[in-house]
């Protein structure tokens, strides 16, 4: 937890610097000195060292769908049937094993903190486990064992659609009412220092209008993050308009559910009024472009949301890909495809979206500065992708050339979790292979 690192190059708040000594004590950065030679005893980090990456939107078990749900034709809704089939099989033990492997995979890609949007709460049929939080506790333990921090975004999910009850596998997600959801969540033990508990509304189709407010109030009373899937599909907007006469964004605003502690995930199909509401309330937008393209969701107005006032974070969501460098560049490249113009985002701005920890309740992470959590992610700059690196274009290399495979060292809260490209405690490839084979 204590020591000194010497980075060949490091991404500091003011930009890239060479020869940076980063001193660490008790999991915090205690000194940052640029332009120095490596002192004896310091751990040398060759390449470009970045702050820790925050994966702001994850459903760990969706990793089991990678390479399987890409076959054939379909839509978001046919994909969802396959996702439910997998969800039907998981137990606290198998969920723990899968999540530990997935979080180890995340660590190997430079992710030091995950926001787990968790809705698979109960046994099949909706029967609570003896410990009603057995599934959430499995995720918390999995993150600890993989060496990353977790914000468990415990999700309220009450209905299968506007005026439709939960059915089938969905019964595992339900707590009947927002009050019962709050009672269960309040029993979660945050435990060690690697955990925050947050709230989530599955979506405006998953939580009835009169139950939105109580969940938002719980989050406000606890100073907790509040996340919500928003307008990922036009069908949600159409059903919301038909039922309530307003868009999902307006429905959330009227329920008091927007604001700086709230994250709108996807925010793909919005009206100009929706964009203004999200921006003026400083609601965070979480873009998940690799999932959105895999599920044929569409391209969200991420730049417009940002210009309206919304901070932007990134999530690998369904884990068709786990690579926040790819998510960051996709935010820009999708905009290019839509507008046929280049350069909507500066690379440094895109990098910042990958470091954005605020929406997960960790404002002290995501920057290489004194006092911050000692999360250090180092990219090799001599690989087939990153060769040609120059410090003046460090951000461009990280965003537009590098990928998860270029991460060779990861330190989380001062602990070395990845060294020489290998997880220090979990054989992630073996763990993924074994757990996914057992689920097949
Ligand atoms: Zn999601």
From TrEMBL:
Domain (Amidohydrolase-related) ranges: 50-416
InterPro entries per record: Amidohydro-rel (IPR006680), HutF (IPR010252), Metal-dep_hydrolase_composite (IPR011059), Metal_Hydrolase (IPR032466), MTA/SAH_deaminase (IPR050287)
Domain of life of the source: Bacteria
Keyword annotations from UniProtKB, A to Z: Hydrolase
Alphabetized GO MF terms: hydrolase activity, acting on carbon-nitrogen (but not peptide) bonds
Gene3D superfamilies documented for this protein: Metal-dependent hydrolases, Urease, subunit C, domain 1
Family matches, as PANTHER family: AMIDOHYDROLASE-RELATED DOMAIN-CONTAINING PROTEIN, AMINOHYDROLASE SSNA-RELATED
Protein name per Swiss-Prot or TrEMBL: Formiminoglutamate deiminase
Naturally occurring in which organism (per UniProt): Cryptosporangium arvum DSM 44712
